[in-house]
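Handoff note, outgoing to incoming analyst
You'll be picking up this chain. Sequence as last confirmed:
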Amino acid sequence: MIRHLDQHNQTLSLNSPANLVSTPPVDSRHRVKQFMQNLQDEICSALERLDGKARFREDQWERPEGGEGRTRVIREGRIFEQGGVNFSEVWGDTLPPSILTQRPEAVGHEFFVTGTSMVLHPRNPYVPTVHLNYRYFEAGPVWWFGGGADLTPYYPFAEDAIQFHALLKSACDVCYPEYYPVFKRWCDEYFYLKHRQEQRGIGGIFFDYQDADGVLYVGPDTDGPAALYSQQVGKVPRNWEDLFGLVQHCGGAFLPAYLPIAQRRQKMEYGDRERNFQLYRRGRYVEFNLVYDRGTIFGLQTNGRAESILMSLPPLTRWEYGYQPEPGTPEAQLTEIFLKPHDWADGHFQGT
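Most recent structure output, in case you need it:
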């Protein structure tokens, strides 16, 4: 159900003069950079404690055209076979074509981008792969926030999906109760492998181009569920501080949403069957990241550090021609039932 702003005291204070200001504060770049670095630090520290064996290796790098970053990779751990948590800030004379087609008003302006991105590939097939990315763009008078987090399980556990979505929904609801319904639908739309006609995982939230204009869905599918829901909501008055708050709340929700899942599944026994299926499904992850992922495209178009851009790929994977899981197995249930969009945050799973 669409809920109106004036019906919820946790939503934006529309009478505040601050909410009518669309320009960023003078220290916007420093504040977002500091948050992104702190988020990287918090996530890495928590994952090292969880793993108990491996530690992150950090590589600091510089971009000749302008920019720098910290790439942290964990390998051969007790829980994490490989994973990376990146921080970067990049600046330059002009944004790449992949961005300018969406934001033509940024043409001719120097740009600044900062963000934190993460992908974790656990060893145990019962522990899901997880992805996070939050970012901020400025280009002359143009600015926006983007990001999200999503879960990619290899074996279906409804309680994990419900928990992950419920925590992300709570983080969104603190800022505005219609954020999650739009961003959840946008996530289902974005992480869809068109050539396979299947979802990559069970989703989460995804948003981009969030600015003072107030339109929630700014994506390509103008007739899709996210767009239609956003049209019903209409424009949402908010300013830079409101959207920075959204990113902060969502970024802070990641560890409470994911760590209990990894803790629950880390000791489950598995054999060659489960491991081979995990490697097969990892192939879908590779296909998405190399064909569709906008972060990968942006990084390569801006001459970013290839090792950092491609750290999202798993260390091992496999492809099998014409693979079909045995009917009635958990492997079959994953794609036939579990990976279909569900109202996870409401505890609804139309499974068997």
